[in-house]
Amino acid sequence: MQLSEQETVRREKLGKLRELGIDPYPAALYPVDNTSLQLKDHYKEGKEVIIAGRLMSRRIQGKASFAELQDSEGRIQVYFNRDEICLGEDKTKYNEVYKKLLDIGDIIGVKGELFTTQVGEITVMVRDFTVLNKSLRPLPLPKVDNEGRTYDEFNDPELRYRQRYVDLVVNPHVKETFIKRTRITNSIRDFFNSRGYLEVETPILQPIPGGAAARPFITHHNALNIPLYLRIANELYLKRLIVGGFDGVYEFAKDFRNEGMDRTHNPEFTVMELYVAYKDYHWMMDTTEQLLEKVAMDSNGTTRIKVGKNEINFKAPYPRVPILQAIKEHTGYDIAGMDEEQLREVCKNLDIPADNTMGKGKLIDEIFGEKCEHHYIQPTFITDYPKEMSPLTKEHRDNPELTERFELMVNGKELANAYSELNDPIDQRQRFEDQLKLSEKGDDEAMFIDQDFLRALEYGMPPTSGIGIGIDRLVMLMTNNASIQEVLFFPQMRPEKKPLQLSDNEKIIIDILRKQKSVALDELKTAAELSNKAWDKGMKGLSKLGLVKVVVEGDSKTVELQEQD
Asked: What is the per-residue pLDDT for 563?
């Protein structure tokens, strides 16, 4: 492992701490009795306190020093004075440990008392301090110049998502997103618990990936010697519980779909699903309005939420628009009653890609997604989906071609999906078999037939309404974040590229090329001042790594530096 100069120095300081008999990673409990926020909110002059946190800045002036300590709730100023900390003749703890062996990023515990500086800042007068963790890597802290301009911010998205632990330390506002996320889920729990619904857990590893149309992740159970799937939805298990006699159940579920990644999709995501007996989708629309109004108030103190350049109002009620009406309004095509070939022709006329694996449901879904979805900024229920799009949904009571289903659109994206649940086992079996035909056509997102779920329905499930709400997307809306990666602590990332290990000879050649990008071969060899053997070895190694390219034009040869992704 190659260490930077700062990392090497920090390891040397680590050794010196141990030479002084100081354990830089002590095991004993440190008796913290306050946080920075508590001290500011309940300030009392001279109060004795014990706090701990990360050293984030300091200004050493001889035998005195002001510093900032950051804990889970913010920062507070601390004041180190050599003669207050070292009461006897031995001043090592201040002169050596504090001034020379501590670094920004180290975690320390402080015992002292509160006072206010002449400029009115609440501060802890340090009487003693304890090293709790010696940091071996320097934090990427931003710097502010005299004109207030900020430099060296830790704001590269890939680095922030990959090193979220650093992001949370140096960008404290990021923590607020995740605090609000918990506030949102707690609000939903409060809403359901107050109505007597039971929070449950269902299997993540499933023999059948049911409850949605999506491509699953596949694994293998060695002891049982069977394939298993990471769940794509928890719907079918929750419905089993309704069959079993629960009137209302819900679950915050981690679901997994082996599909694309973008600003609104992560292969691992969180969905809240709720199922309530003796209800229908009209009741669920009313309930969803009440729920989201409460969530907005609990998380932001208002129903009006700023999302990008839009202001979205979650105050009930929300418009209710049938999907076929929406398609007609935004495309001019009335697709009611159209067969698969007619729908394929509509897609062609609208320049919407459609392949032979798509059935009626997918074709309609593509038309709506491409031409309609983005128009619905304010919360809007899109209702009454065609039967082919909804294999788990009850047939519409007024039109057998449709189903009692809605999707909630907010800011041009689907936030929730809900049904009057299909509880006719014969109809459900036929719908599954229709999905099987789509699978045989090549649709790798078509649903599997879950024989055990069909058996459960044959025992009888009461009329039920269910809903799934994408928690990650809901948090994005409530925190005004455009990317799902901003609301996941640890989003899925491509494997981290290992830094290239270059020999000394290779480094010499690369350093010259970095200044000029392209150099005549003879000039480069002369400038490198390497022996023929070292030159040949260096160039061969760089070519193998794809870092250099020799371009031949007539009698001239030029070496070009190759840009790396």
From this structure: 67
